[in-house]
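Protein in question passed on here:
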Amino acid sequence: MTSFKLTYQKGATPLDLDEASELIPKYISTQGDLNELEQSNIANAFLWAQRANLDHLLTATFILTLHKKMFADVWKWAGKSRSSNKNIGVAKEQIMEELGLLLQDTKYWIEHNTFDEDEIAARFHQRLVRIHVFPNGNGRHARLTTDLLLKRLGQPAFTWGSSTSQNPLETEGPTRKSYIAALKEADLGDYRSLLIFARS
């Protein structure tokens, strides 16, 4: 168990007691310490991802490995699908099946030019977030994975609202509010707001 109370931004997935007890570093005593360590780990994962073979991006192994690279210094469950149900996401028993369907669908969209590259990426992102593979870090993981998919498709990464707002997406504020609202619309089948937000 952590020695401090974990806090969550709106739309984030709270950890249960067992998951929270799997914090690796013993020196972490504040939410700020945890955020700083996670950000450092994610920065290292980003460097790894830039050198990774993206031919394997649309595999469950790559999806799990990327999450492990992002959080392996912080959480023992990094890179493992969640074993508990959350306030968002499919039932824990359906995670790997739903992930497999998403990867198959994405390959089909690419092979058959079903949508343009941005819409393929937006649809992939929305589905990955909705599945919610991991105990935590799903949004950050899904955004990085989506940007890598765009790179594989020969397109620039999404800006995720950063070009029109100084407010970071990871903190409470208008950028995050717009992102969550766009995802909710996409959950209902309307991707227009998500596509606009992703390139704004």
Residues 36 and 85 are 27 Å apart (CA to CA). The radius of gyration is 16 Å. DSSP finds eight helices and no strands in the chain. The mean pLDDT is 94.
